[in-house]
Amino acid sequence: MVLALRCGPDTVSGVSAPVAASANALLTTIPSPSQGVWYIGPIPLRAYALCIIAGIIAAVWLGSRRWVARGGREGTVIDVAVFAVPFGLVGGRLYHVATDWHKYFGPDRDPLDALKVWEGGLGIWGAVALGAVGAWIGCRRHGIPLSAFADAVAPGIVLAQAIGRLGNWFNQELYGGPTDLPWGLEIYRRIDPETGLADPIAGVAVDHTPVAVVHPTFLYELLWNVGVCLLVLWADRKFRMGHGRVFALYVAGYTAGRLWIELMRADEATHLFGVRINVFTSLLVFAGAVLYLVLVRGRREDPEQLKGRPLPGDDDVDAADPGAADPGAAAPKQTAAAATEDTADADESSADGSGDRAEDDRAEARSNGTDGHKNHEG
């Protein structure tokens, strides 16, 4: 998707004096979408959900390519994702509700709104934590190391986060404070066409007159995440990292950016000691990731470990062509038992040969002795 740029002073006509003054100073601004929900009959088509789905597809695609390149089986990432994705979505929502509980529980609040994932609100910390539990279950079922799997999918996860941030743009959420920078984001007043009531997420823009021009923090994080994805891909290729260190680099890189972006955001959030709670979470997770990178060492996992438990078709392949699994492999070595058995057979054959020769010698001696006696008597 391409973010169109709106140019010229006419875009801000009719707004309040403070907004008009700041917006008129802009050479360009980024417009928000007029709406984030479309309807096909009675079925809502939500941009936020589509962005999340697109991110998941991108993560699975990139993770699958990296997993196979490391020596894993084709299709394993999709199999594990069946567990990891649902767990991650639930974890992301639980974290959001727990840290923004006042939006769902309290005076004039409806607790059932906590189930409305389509309206936005997925905390990455909960998504990664509970998603890791789902991935662990999937990895155990396939008999593969979780650390190697996490390293393979790490760049895809942060790429999915970048794509998911476009959903925040459609929802007009997670933006920063007012700005007069050339890339300021225009925020429009949206209403429900049927009721005429304000609906900033599912509503439709009254017009394209901005009620505010703000920092597009969704865009800052999107670009930062793409940068982290490229950094992780480069570092993994350069240093051949393993044992979860690629995943730790992703976490450290992401949280470093999330820290300063979080400080710029102006949306509602739970505060601790006057600071947004996600700032503390970013600091703690960043410190843990850096500590892991410093302490954990070791070569990348053996590709044979990534194949997991044998599958039914593996025996057929081996029987048809023992070298099919690895064309460059040497001829299979004998087991200790087979080698011992061969040695015993050789010893037995040698002993039999010695006995036969001894028996021939005795027969020849008897024959010579008899012939000699007869000659002497004659």
Automatic annotation (TrEMBL):
Cellular-component GO terms for this entry: plasma membrane
Location(s) in or outside the cell: Cell membrane
Pathway as given in its UniProt record: Protein modification; lipoprotein biosynthesis (diacylglyceryl transfer)
GO biological process: lipoprotein biosynthetic process
Basic and acidic residues bias spans: 354-378
EC number annotated for this UniProt entry: 2.5.1.145
Membrane topology: Multi-pass membrane protein
Alphabetical keyword list: Cell membrane, Membrane, Transferase, Transmembrane, Transmembrane helix
InterPro entries per record: Lgt
GO molecular function: phosphatidylglycerol-prolipoprotein diacylglyceryl transferase activity
A Pfam family: LGT
Bias (Low complexity): 320-341
Region described as Disordered: spans on this chain: 303-378
Function: Catalyzes the transfer of the diacylglyceryl group from phosphatidylglycerol to the sulfhydryl group of the N-terminal cysteine of a prolipoprotein, the first step in the formation of mature lipoproteins.
Family the entry assigns: Belongs to the Lgt family.
PANTHER family xref list: PHOSPHATIDYLGLYCEROL--PROLIPOPROTEIN DIACYLGLYCERYL TRANSFERASE (PTHR30589:SF0), PROLIPOPROTEIN DIACYLGLYCERYL TRANSFERASE (PTHR30589)
HAMAP family: Lgt
Protein name in UniProt: Phosphatidylglycerol--prolipoprotein diacylglyceryl transferase
Species: Saccharopolyspora thermophila
